[in-house]
Amino acid sequence: MSSDPLLRVENLKTQFFTETGTVRAVDGISFEVYEGEIVGLVGESGAGKSVASMSLLRLVESPGEIVGGTIEYKGTTIFDLEEGPDGDLRKHPDMLSEAAMRERIRGREIAVIFQDPMESLNPVFTVGGQLREFIELNRDLSSSTAKAEAIRMLREVGIPDPEQRYEEYPHQFSGGMRQRVLIAMALACEPNLIIADEPTTALDVTVEGQILDLVDDLQERYDTSFIWVTHDMGVVAEICDRVNVMYLGEIVEQAPVDELFYETNHPYTKALLNSMPRPDRTVEELTPIEGVMPEAINPPSGCRFHPRCPDAREVCTRVHPEAREVDRADGHPHRAACVKHDVFDVGYDESVPLEDGADAKPSGGETEAERGSAAGGGHASTDGGESR
Ligand SMILES: Nc1ncnc2c1ncn2[C@@H]1O[C@H](COP(=O)(O)OP(=O)(O)OP(=O)(O)O)[C@@H](O)[C@H]1O
Ligand code: NI
After folding, report:
1. How many domains does the chain divide into?
2. Which of 5, 63, 84, 129 has the fewest beta carbons closer than 10 A?
3. What is the pTM of this model?
């Protein structure tokens, strides 16, 4: 890719300052989104996907704070720090003001779709009324033009009888139809980038498939870029062009989607793929990832995945790898944060393999439920801790 990215994120760090300590929810992630791409953010519950998404719009709430890195959108600075005269870090003067974020960026340039439409839709107003008002406010249209536009958008996202459904309330819509309304709302201002945080996770598989098809179709027609947050490698396979795999606040692997699936370079990605149901495998053949992801408040030394990694060696307990380019595919880098690759050259080959089992279980053991969520189904269980 030779053109400039639409969004450039470099070394982004977001932390929560809690009574029990600092939660390093997002710990130095770097990635780009180019025009017209669907870029996946995938990882288990607690990996930092939602916090990363909210950081991009500067919507992290106290006790959370973006503490480092750069976020650039179309060459404008959404976030950046500089060193002040006394040596401490302060906001860069080029950084967009809060008012500019509200008036120019959120909704208009970068829109968000959440998992639960009922959080974004007000139950006491009609669906059409809410969509119309949103369009009216954001696009400076008259009420009647905005209404026509709202009905057009409802039709655009595949809602049958849009004139009639316009008058209905959110509870009269099925989960899938409500999610379509949110997609309509996200598209209403024709943003260049839509951040979708697990918008299909609560839907059954058939409806999920329909929504993914719709997004694929809309993406092509509007040429909108997407950041698609999910814990589901199946969803990634279906709609993403490129993928970032997150583990404990870090991006451990980044590659175009086919490359990630067929030339997997990080043991965590491999584990995620092995835990994914596939038509050519029976349920018995699924291998849940060993152990559970540790707390972001006190991450393991060295490579954060080493306590659960089948390939871990002694060196992995000491060396903390940052993602490096290990290959290229379709003009994009394939980055991986695993010292078994030659580019790291820290003596992995000579290092002693960690004894299986001794270090492979988290302290306190694991429960069946935790194993279940390690296999990729655990979004709902931690919703209470989300910053949204
Ligand atoms: N308001 C908060 N206060 C303290 N810690 C928080 C807060 N919000 C999130 N965290 C922590 O930040 C880390 C990342 O959380 P995040 O919600 O981004 O994970 P996620 O990858 O989106 O997971 P899920 O798939 O469950 O949505 C977790 O350790 C979480 O506990
Ligand atoms: Ni989340």
Report:
1. 1
2. 84
3. 0.88
The answer to the question of residue 288 being in a domain is yes
SS3 266: coil
Beta strand extents in 45-128 (DSSP E only): 64-73, 76-79, 81-83, 89-91, 110-113
C-beta 151 within 6 A of ligand 1:
no
- Of 17, 386, 388, the one to substitute when testing ligand 1's pocket (max ligand atoms within 8 A of C-beta) is 386
Chain segment 273-322, per-residue pLDDT in tens: 998 776 666 667 667 777 777 888 889 999 999 999 999 999 999 999 99
Q: How far is the CA of 51 from the centre of ligand 1 (A)?
A: 6
Both structure tokens of 267? 């043991």
Q: Is the CB of 46 under 6 A from ligand 1?
A: yes
Residue 124: count of CB within 10 angstroms of its CB:
8
Determine, yes or no, domain membership for 180: no
186 falls within a domain: no
CATH number assigned to the domain comprising residue 245 = 3.40.50.300
Ligand 1 pocket test: which of 383, 387, 388 has the largest number of ligand atoms within 8 Å of its C-beta? 387
Asked if residue 55 belongs to a domain, the reply is yes
Backbone conformation region of residue 125, classed left if phi is above 0, alpha if psi is from -120 to 50, else beta = beta
pLDDT single digits (tens) 375-384: 333 333 333 3
* ipTM for the predicted complex: 0.99
